[in-house]
Predict the 3D structure of the following.
Amino acid sequence: MRSCVGNVSEIFASVQGEGEHVGRRHVFVRFGGCPLRCRYCDTPGSLDPGPTCRIYWPGRREEERPNPLTVGELDDLVATRAAAEIRAHALALTGGEPLAQAAFLAEWLPQRSVRLPVLLETAATLPAQLERVLPWIDIVSADIKLPSNSGETARWAAHEQCLRMSVGRDVYVKMLVDDGTDPAELEAGARLVAAVDDAIPIFLQPITAGHDGRPCIRAETLETLYRRVAACGVDVRVVPQTHKILGVP
């Protein structure tokens, strides 16, 4: 049987800048291609599959490999990159949308050489694909997309399905906020999480402009939104994109 091939945008190591595990050193595999077109996307270069994968090695050395990559080629690259790290906490799969390549992930993850915990960063809109790869996922970082700031159609049912099947793992939710966020949508997302499991933490993540981590939300708006979410009986926290503030990938 012919092996799957995948499109990978980048492989690198950095501190995790978002969510529950912020500040921990992760080895990142950024997949190319995403079915969504969020207005605030900060990785537009990975929205579509690209012709090459860029690998960032220690000492600022960079390398490019042609896409697509076989499972074996990706595994060799990730294993070599991870070997250069000291006490990396997890292997982070990001994008784009990794679940858009669920068949490739389902072939690679069971046989991967790097036995770090696997963190999946996903928009949580593809429940069938999530179910296919979930046996090899330890941490689920699920975005709930709010139409008022993403510009995307609401996908409440898909978000709920993804969260329900993730219960029992280390799972957390991110909801991005700015001055244009509709509080009613934010509350709907919080109530959805509470209905699934009110112990799932929700991270309100200010949308930023440019690469300097400057938030697109006033302090008073952020406080108001925080109060609206907290009133839904959930564990809510405000955490910005710390990697942008630090100026790291």
About this structure: DSSP finds eight helices and 14 strands in the chain. Helices lie at 71-83, 102-108, 127-133, 147-150, 156-166, 183-197, 219-230, 242-246. The CA atoms of residues 167 and 194 lie 12 Å apart.
